[in-house]
Amino acid sequence: MIYGKITKQSKYLMTPVVFATALNVYAQDQSELPDFTEEDIFIDIPQVISATHLSQKLTEAPAAITIIDQDMIEASGAINIPDLFRLVPGMQVYHISTNKMGVTYHGMSDDFPSRMEVMINGRSIYIPLLSTVVWETVGITLDDIDHIEVVRGSNVPTHGSNAFLGAINIITKSPVAESGTAVRTTTGALGTQNITARHSNTLSNISYTLSAGREENDGSDYYKDGARNTFITLSGSITPNLSDTIHFDIGATKGYAYRGDSDKTDLIDANFSPRDHESNFQDFRWSRVLDNQSELQLRYTHNYLNLDTENYNSAEQLALYEGIPSIGPFTSVEIASVLLEHNNGIAPRDTERGTIQTHEVGLLYTSNPTNNINLALGSEFKYERAKSDILLQYPDKEWIDESSWQLFGNIQYQATEKITLNAGSMLEKSSIAGSAISYRTALNYALSDTSSVRTAHSQAHRMPSLLEANRRYIVDISAIALAPAGTLFDNNVLPNRDLEPEQINSFEIGFLKLWPEYHSHFDLRVFYEDINDAVVRSKRIDTDVNIDEPFNDHHDISANNGEWTNQGAELQFKYTVPGPHKNTILFNYSYNQTRGIWNRGAYKPPEGDPRIVPLNPVSPLHTASLVLSAKPTNNSLLSLSQYYMDHAEWLEGFSDKNSGRTNYTRTDMKVSNTFQLDMNTELEVSLIVQNLFDKEYAEFYSNNIFERRTYLQMGLTF
Fold first, then answer.
1. Secondary structure of the chain: what % helix, strand, coil (to 5)?
2. pLDDT of 19 above 50
3. Taking a C-beta distance cutoff of 8 angstroms, is the pair 673, 683 a contact?
4. In sequence order, what are the beta bridge partners of 411?
5. For 361-515, where are the alpha helices, taking DSSP H only?
6. C-alpha to C-alpha distances, 690 to 98, 207, 414, 640, 669, nearest whole angstrom
7. Cα angle: 204, vertex 10, 361; to 5 degrees
8. 3 — alpha (psi -120 to 50), left (phi > 0) or beta?
9. Is the pLDDT of residue 520 over 80?
10. Confidence band (pLDDT; 50, 70, 90) for 477?
11. CA distance from start to end of the chain
12. Which single residue of 46, 340, 386, 446 has CA 20 to 30 Å from 636?
């Protein structure tokens, strides 16, 4: 990748590849470097890569992008990675239970939020078995992050189907930029006991960072929905010569997190139980600088995740079916016993159970053929497979697999000094849903060196996930007397291999103004998004399936039964007060009006009239955040963060407007001080209080109460 101008905010770009490029060019002809000056290296206009695979000035990117840098991570008082996204306009973060978090852009979500790609150094951590991200298994912490790029708006032409509404790229710290050892502990609310350590070093042509940790808590006092996770990761780079660089990320996690229904006040009904997880990943990227203008990158990624839940014991299993009416001489208990025996005794406490494996091979070519043209061309092949005795019940096969192929390209053309044009397209072909072409065009007009106006249009598609097309959960009662062969019991879930790709048409106008000397900016995005053929869960009456009273004749199925529009505006303003200390104000606001319908399917047999549900309040109309960060001295920090989210009726979760807890305001505080113990050793002590004023509120579920939470952190660097 040809990086062009490198910035302070984009320290991650200053990798061995960049220096190898500079040295290689120098060896060829010193006269070719008249523009590569110290001013170029330390210019303050941020550059980003997540919008197009090209290194671009933020003022020339074809999308609205929020950069969460280390200063904002430090000031936020966040304990986990999802909490950081409360700092992004248009994004919602919520606890589904104490240790299950959801992150979504423009709402319209349930307890498994999809339609947004999440990556670590470009490696997708989206889980096809659940069509979401399982945040507690990602294997990194806040201390590992250099910065995060959040693309606000559809980014399918660059990152594929999962980036339907947006994309997150978490970029970790480069071992080239830091060396030494750091240890951090966090204790406090919910019985939290976290300890993490990282060590970075450079040996000859190898730079590496080794991170490990253990994080655990007891969960809420009522539900006792605790979690534990241990992880280890090794990342770094090898530069065997001036033209080649090999980047690697290897890691593994193991632990558990309790899962259940925190909408239930009765502990038995809530049914919390541990869901174990075990994962590993390997990500290798080989980059070769071909000449002064072009670079080639080859990538291989493997992800593995196993989730396991408990089954009900015998007595609990029988109780599950005690409501079954008797048939002839058979009692409900006898029928329940036959049901359990005929269905292999499987009665899971939670559905998050199964194993996934993904393999990805990608090729990316970037070039700067002329002074005013930058282009990226690439292709990627992905193979993923999954098995689950709950979500993917197939009698004739254990694994369900999917293969997909992508061909994409992005080009940036500097038409004049003022006008920058971007165009991108992606062809995706899936073994599940055929093929689709997505594209985006954008025009950026520079009002000055530090401000621009952007207009963009995108038509993009999202392929149905492996789970959406193949989910099959059957309780077969064929073995029961008087039940016809092939009869299914109650609320079964059947697959739908006829799903079509979802489609989005989005239009936006953006204005960006930077004040580099103050590390400040103002970003405004006005948007309109039209989503059609959205894949949602629906009911269906299937006359081909044998149904006999007293069992009902419905089953769940994924169908292209949703459509809605989002329209509104979002802004971000960051201002750093001039002076010896970084005193910063960050304000985010989003207004998003959602209108649409969800066809829930046939609810009134035998006529099968569909139930049409309006989607008007499924996204919060207003969300906002405000961060005030002050550094009274070089070694101290005081920050206050205020968050507001309006009422939202999620596709899952509570929606009682009379509960008094449908919107919330939360204030967090962080106070920290760093003590210089000697020339090479620092001790940092931080006090973090979330929901400082103890204004209890419910997140997602009405009984999932967020109270005041206090944490003490201590970090030692040497």
1. 10, 55, 35
2. no
3. no
4. 375, 423
5. 466-470
6. 14, 37, 46, 10, 6
7. 70
8. alpha
9. yes
10. low
11. 34
12. 46
- Residue 215 bridge partners (DSSP): 194, 229
Residues of the chain with pLDDT > 90: what percent? 65
Which two structure tokens, joined as six digits, stand for 140?
């990194």
Longest distance between any two alpha carbons in the chain, whole Å: 96
- pLDDT for position 335: 65
Nearest Cα to Cα of residue 44 among 448, 515, 578, 444: 515
Using a 10 angstrom Cβ sphere, with 0-12 exposed, 13-18 middle and 19 or more buried, the burial of residue 440 is buried
Q: Would you say 263 and 702 are in contact if contact means Cβ atoms under 8 Å apart?
A: yes
Query: Using the 8-state DSSP alphabet, how is residue 476 labeled?
Result: B
> How buried is residue 117: exposed, middle or buried, by Cβ count under 10 Å (0-12/13-18/19+)?
buried
Whether residue 416 contacts residue 24, with contact meaning beta carbons closer than 8 Å, is answered with: no
Return the ∠ at Cα 484 (arms to 481 and 489), rounded to 5°. Answer: 85
- Asked if the bond preceding 606 is cis, omega within 30° of 0, the reply is yes
Burial 551-581 (b: 16+ CB within 10 A, else e): bebbbbbbbbbbbbebebbbbbbbbbeeeeb
**Residues 422, 428, 434, 435, CA torsion sign:** positive
The 10s digit of each residue's pLDDT in 249-259 is: 999 999 999 99
CB atoms within 10 A of CB 113: 24
- Tell how strand 117-120 and strand 166-172 pair up: parallel
Q: Domains plus CATH for the chain?
A: 11-310+348-717 (2.40.170.20)
pLDDT digits (tens, 9 = 90+) for 339-357: 666 555 566 788 899 999 9
Shortest CA distance to 586 belongs to which of 633, 637, 541, 640?
640
Average pLDDT (234-241) is 95
pTM: 0.89
Mean pLDDT, the chain, integer: 85
Identify whether the C-beta of residue 707 lies closer than 8 Å to the C-beta of residue 222.
no
